[in-house]
Amino acid sequence: MRIVFMGTPEFAVPSLRLLIEQGYNVVAAVSQPDRPKGRKRVLTPPPLKEAALAFGLPVLQPERMRSPEAVAAIAELQPDLIVTAAYGQILPKALLDIPRLGCINVHGSLLPGYRGGAPIQRSIINGETVTGVTIMYMAEGLDTGDMISRVEVPITDEDTSGTLFEKLSAAGAELLGRTLPALIAGEIKAEPQNNELATYAPNLTREDERIDWSKPARSIYNQVRGLSPMAGAFTYLNGEVFKVWACAKPDGKANNGSAAPGTVVAVSTAGIDVQTGEGVLQLLEIQPAGKRVMTVADWLPGSRLSSGAVFDGGEA
């Protein structure tokens, strides 16, 4: 049986590794094109491409999977099954119709909840306590295909999107390994999704990253966790971008008198206490404009921050 595997970020690597280690015949990997990365804009291959090359697999990187040329290139591989995991593009019907066993996707949520490109980040941002992985047949819509199998994964208060990515990628690979034998044997009874229960997790925007200090401390805490360690949440200090990478779990501290949301109410090497719309939030790891990520204790000696300063969530 010939399998084509499609994926892009680190999330997809454990699933590809499982297929290789279990002896499946992966004939090629497909990933997004190399992209400029970092301040020096160095052209960098996606993690899935690097893993595939290490396994000795040929790698295709079409700019647009909907192009006739890209579909023809996949058809030439004569796949019996296509497996995707966080590939990053919606596959056209012409491609979905190629493999005799269909196309399946390892998706990082419990469908029909959190369809879309950022289910892991948004599940944390929204304060969910449980998420999971769903393996489904792919359809023309956005994560709308029939569900084949699923597994739940708890979200702890300490989880960031980084730790949850690792948990779900491992859970997805394990679930794929348990699902494939029955799928290949034709023993799968897929379950249609209830579209009335569908929720969506669109890709994150700059607006999603900006802190609104009028929100409750717990909400901002979840936002910071959901954006770490990728984009990071940000606010403004003296008109410059000020990123927040980690906070202490809100302990229910009451509002500090008449302090407005965004006001610094206490400063120490332990952290920066900031008034929110409901409670006080302590910042632990920050990144002032033009500087590296650091703890508050490392930053304070060279800063002039004091109680009464105000973080502004609006435009600089």
If you had to describe this structure to a student in words, what would you say it looks like?
The chain is α/β, with parallel strands linked by helices and 316 residues long. The protein has two domains: 2-197, Formyl transferase, N-terminal domain (Rossmann fold); 206-302, Methionyl-tRNA Fmet Formyltransferase, Chain A, domain 2. The chain is built from nine helices and 15 strands. The protein has helices spanning 13-21, 47-54, 68-76, 93-96, 119-125, 161-184, 206-209, 217-226, 296-299; strands spanning 2-7, 25-30, 35-37, 42-44, 59-60, 81-85, 103-107, 130-137, 147-154, 233-237, 240-247, 264-268, 271-275, 280-288, 294-295. The strands form three sheets. A seven-stranded mixed sheet has the order 5-2-1-6-7-8-9. Strands 10, 11, 12, 13, 14 and 15 form a six-stranded antiparallel sheet that branches. Helix 1 links the parallel strand 1 (2-7) and strand 2 (25-30). Helix 1 (13-21) packs parallel to helix 6 (161-184) and helix 5 (119-125) runs antiparallel to helix 8 (217-226). The mean pLDDT is 94. Keywords: Protein biosynthesis, Transferase. (6S)-5,6,7,8-tetrahydrofolate binds at residues 109-112.
